[in-house]
Amino acid sequence: MGVGKSTVCQRLKQELTDCVFLDGDWCWDADPFQVNKETKAMVLENICFLLNQFLHCSAYQNIVFCWVMHKQEIIGSILSRLDVADCTVKTISLLCSEQALRERLLGDVRKGIRQADVIERSVRRLPCYQTLNTKKIDTSGKTVEQIVREILLA
If you compute the radius of gyration of the chain from its CA atoms, what whole number of angstroms results? Predict the structure, then answer.
């Protein structure tokens, strides 16, 4: 949360040909937001259904997907349910420094976009990303265009 996933992916969608973008948060936008066994299973099913629909649609050559995936088991669970036999899959984690993360999230809190508790939750997850089998891209101090270029070269 707060590293620029959605912003970068929206821009990446514009750079890639015949591209569709799915933000995993769109599959679990509820009020109140509830995290339990049932809702976790539901969101994974929603995400995998939509991604497979995109994979099977000849109109798209590129699919961009983002979500907070701080555990390898989340990535593995999604990938295991997708029909990616004829695809190239790139797994990339966008990261930033703790200071940059705190500043970005505090700005969102001040704007009323996020609740204050997101800051500590997000900071606690930072070390988790180092253990993932993904290419890591640090977004600290970079423009969206610079980050998109790094992704395209990955």
Answer: 16
Query: Cis (ω within 30 of 0) for the bond into 127?
Result: no
Q: Is it the case that residue 3 has pLDDT exceeding 90?
A: no
Residue 18: what are its φ and ψ, rounded to 5°? 45, 60
Q: What are phi and psi of 77, to 5 degrees?
A: -65, -40
pTM, to two decimals = 0.91
Nearest CA to 92 out of 56, 47, 138, 126 is that of: 138
Length of the chain: 154
Q: How far apart are CA 19 and CA 49, in angstroms?
A: 17
Name the nearest CA neighbour of 123 among 88, 99, 146: 99
